[in-house]
Amino acid sequence: MKQEELSLEEQVERIRKKRASRFDSTKVRIVLNFLFLILAVVGLCMYFFGSANHVPALIVIAIGMAFKVVEFILRLL
Asked: Is 60 helix (H, G, I), strand (E, B) or coil?
């Protein structure tokens, strides 16, 4: 059946069904963003208020950045 033959309501319903069948990554992205923000703040606090050894703080920040990269990839998909 051609799309011109469908009524507007049928076309809208078809689009809704197609979108509903896809994976919704919004909630996962929100959680990953939240983890990134928490780890970034913790890492910065460790860096500025911790000991002279900044390696643990940089590791925490790097883990947060890994979460951000995963979130970015999910946004592209």
From this structure: helix
- Statement: the pTM of the whole predicted model exceeds 0.85: no
CA separation for the pair 6, 43 (Å, rounded): 56
The structure tokens listed for 16 are: 């809704």
Q: Where are the domains positioned within the chain?
A: 24-76
- Sort residue 58 into left (φ over 0), alpha (ψ -120 to 50) or beta: alpha
Q: Write out pLDDT tens, residues 17-72.
A: 887 777 778 899 999 999 999 999 999 999 999 888 999 999 999 999 999 999 99
Residue 33: name the closest of 1, 72, 60, 7 by CA.
72
